[in-house]
């Protein structure tokens, strides 16, 4: 590895990430995240702002007792207050009390902030930067200086912006980091400015800290690296203030696979999807399926032409091998599927079928007709498998519903909710049609109970099957309550779960279809 090609990854998920709306970690969660980032090979982990809140204080107390095998933990804060000596500034004191090997402080670059926000003079601001850095250096810390609003400051007054970086360098900063705090910069212009800053502060190395306000936080970070920056600050999954920070789950694979840079975590990139999703889980967020590299849809092919080509040569429609970042190729089924998509999906489910056969043609015709009627197999693998087995393996029905009737009664004054279902059903191996009646709070529950009564001891494998989740939506706008309703149902047996679908203008019938497929899917195991 050439030094010139090596980048340090600085993670601020636990500080700038938590400045994002809806993101909150307990001190214990922060420790868990820090441990995950450390095992992954992240170089710097910014744990929080110690003087800012009790939770961050607890984090740093807990972090002191931990040994991190690779990462350096950093405490974040600001330069000293105006007209106060650094040694008398309580905020700088708390940064030292955090006992981290690294301290990161931000200072002002943009004169607007110096005069209107700090309400001090340009000279005093330069002194605040230099003194604060020197104070922390003299206390034995590695010091990273974050030049807040560097690019806005540079646009306003390049000479003053560069002076602030030099003040940090003069104080002894180990790094100066160029922050696009408001996230408004554009790539080509920013690259020229980074080149100039790198030359001006040399030999002090430069880092990038970009925000995603124009949707290009990652592009700005990569452009900065190409212009000579050697540290990238960002967050996992792009958490952060407003629309977020540069997303490290995109930055890292791009640095490695697209630009050929090296960093410690590159050896663990095949665990990237797992890392990102586990952090989402701690943050109580649903992973973004459209996230580059690691999203569930990042290598999902829906168009039949794409699936056909990707099956022959995966790189024909995939920019990298999904496994390199711990992801996988997925084939989605819909009315855009061709024989190859269906054959691949069937293969995933353990059913080998010939994509060119006449049986396949008739299956695809049937699939597309059903999709047109509102069934959605893309998200209902179990219904697809039932359809596939019936078509290709001639699987016959273990039961056939002859008819059903449901009645619901709601007594509003007593808050009573009672539904009754009567079903007539033919069960395999039995001569007579069975008629059963059952009650529940809702009509689908009543139907389910009546079905199970009719099954009797016939299908013991259905005993543990339970409804876990149920989604319903209408498919046609403009028809109001007469629209076709689509139901997606998640069932489970304690060991695994499966999705089924139904579609009908009658919500009970759509629910029944999804329920029936759920039973049928489980009975395929016989
Ligand atoms: C770009 C960034 O992301 S920077 C990080 C932003 N993150 C946060 O603010 C989260 C943590 N913040 C906090 O908990 C609180 O704001 C604290 C504890 C830091 C400060 O709280 P308070 O003392 O009550 O001040 P308050 O939040 O009202 O205002 C911020 C103060 O910091 C001052 N300040 C802002 N930047 C700097 C700086 N670089 N150096 C010194 N002082 C600064 C402001 O001038 C203001 O003081 P003033 O009102 O006397 O002018
Ligand atoms: C330091 C920082 O978080 C910023 O300027 O955006």
Automatic annotation (TrEMBL):
PROSITE patterns to which the protein is assigned, alphabetical: AIPM_HOMOCIT_SYNTH_1, AIPM_HOMOCIT_SYNTH_2, PYR_CT
Family matches, as Gene3D superfamilies: 1.10.238.260, 3.30.160.270, Aldolase class I
Q: What pathway annotation does it carry?
A: Amino-acid biosynthesis; L-isoleucine biosynthesis; 2-oxobutanoate from pyruvate: step 1/3
Say if the entry is tagged with keyword Cytoplasm.
Answer: no
Q: Per its UniProt record, what SUPFAM superfamilies does this chain match?
A: 2-isopropylmalate synthase LeuA, allosteric (dimerisation) domain (SSF110921), Aldolase (SSF51569)
Keywords, alphabetical? Amino-acid biosynthesis, Branched-chain amino acid biosynthesis, Isoleucine biosynthesis, Transferase
Q: Does the keyword Amino-acid biosynthesis apply?
A: yes
Catalytic activity, reaction form? pyruvate + acetyl-CoA + H2O = (3R)-citramalate + CoA + H(+)
What are the GO MF terms of this UniProt record?
(R)-citramalate synthase activity; 2-isopropylmalate synthase activity
> What is one Gene Ontology biological process annotated in the Swiss-Prot or TrEMBL record?
L-leucine biosynthetic process
Entry superkingdom: Bacteria
Q: What class of enzyme is it?
A: transferase
Its Enzyme Commission number(s) read 2.3.3.21
Q: Which residues form the Pyruvate carboxyltransferase domain?
A: 7-273
CDD domains, alphabetically?
Answer: DRE_TIM_LeuA3 (cd07941)
Q: Name one Pfam family in it.
A: HCS_D2
Protein family according to the UniProt entry? Belongs to the alpha-IPM synthase/homocitrate synthase family.
Q: What is this protein called?
A: Citramalate synthase
Q: Which organism is it from?
A: Oceanipulchritudo coccoides
């Amino acid at each position: 590895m050439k030094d010139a090609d090596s980048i340090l990854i600085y993670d601020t998920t636990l500080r700038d990430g938590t400045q994002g709306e809806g993101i909150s970690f307990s001190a214990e969660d922060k420790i868990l995240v820090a441990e995950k980032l450390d095992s992954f090979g992240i170089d710097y982990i910014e744990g929080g702002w110690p003087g800012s809140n009790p939770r961050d204080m607890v984090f740093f107390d807990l972090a002191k007792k931990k040994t991190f095998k690779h990462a350096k933990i950093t405490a974040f804060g600001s330069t000293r207050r105006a007209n106060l000596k650094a040694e008398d500034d309580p905020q700088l004191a708390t940064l030292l009390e955090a006992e981290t090997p690294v301290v990161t402080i931000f200072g002002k670059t943009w004169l607007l902030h110096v005069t209107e926000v700090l309400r001090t003079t340009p000279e005093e601001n330069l002194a605040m930067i230099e003194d604060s850095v020197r104070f922390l250096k003299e206390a034995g810390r590695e010091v990273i200086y974050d030049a807040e609003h560097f690019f806005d400051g540079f646009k306003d007054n390049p000479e003053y912006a560069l002076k602030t970086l030099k003040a940090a360098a003069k104080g002894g900063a180990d790094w100066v980091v160029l922050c696009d705090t408001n996230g408004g910069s554009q790539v080509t212009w920013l690259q020229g400015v980074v080149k100039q800053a790198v030359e001006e502060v040399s030999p002090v190395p430069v880092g990038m800290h970009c925000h995603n306000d124009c949707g290009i936080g990652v592009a700005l970070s990569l452009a900065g690296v190409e212009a000579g920056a050697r540290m990238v600050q960002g967050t996992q999954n792009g958490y952060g203030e407003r629309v977020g920070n540069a997303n490290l789950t995109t930055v890292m694979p791009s640095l490695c696979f697209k630009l050929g840079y090296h960093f410690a975590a590159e050896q663990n990139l095949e665990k990237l999807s797992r890392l990102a999703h586990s952090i989402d889980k701690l943050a109580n967020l649903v992973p973004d399926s459209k996230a580059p590299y690691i999203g569930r849809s990042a290598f999902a092919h829906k168009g039949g032409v794409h699936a056909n080509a990707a099956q022959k040569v995966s790189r024909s429609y995939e920019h990298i091998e999904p496994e390199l970042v711990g992801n996988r190729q997925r084939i989605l089924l819909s009315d855009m599927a061709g024989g190859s998509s269906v054959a691949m999906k069937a293969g995933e489910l353990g059913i080998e079928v010939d994509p060119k056969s006449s049986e396949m043609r008739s299956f695809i015709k049937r699939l597309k007709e059903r999709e047109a009627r509102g069934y959605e197999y893309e998200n209902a693998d179990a219904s697809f498998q039932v359809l596939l087995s019936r078509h290709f393996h001639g699987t016959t029905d273990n039961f056939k519903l002859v008819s059903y009737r449901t009645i619901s009664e709601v007594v509003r004054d007593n808050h009573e909710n009672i539904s009754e279902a009567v079903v007539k059903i033919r069960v395999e191996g039995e001569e007579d049609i069975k008629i059963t009646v059952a009650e529940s709070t809702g009509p689908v529950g009543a139907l389910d109970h009546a079905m199970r009564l009719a099954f009797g001891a016939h299908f013991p494998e259905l005993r543990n099957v339970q409804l876990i989740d149920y989604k319903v939506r209408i498919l046609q706008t403009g028809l109001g309550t007469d629209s076709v309703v689509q139901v997606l149902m998640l069932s489970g047996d304690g060991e695994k779960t499966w999705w089924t679908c139904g579609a009908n203008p009658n919500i009970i019938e759509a629910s029944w279809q999804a329920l029936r497929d759920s039973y049928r899917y489980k009975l395929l195991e016989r």
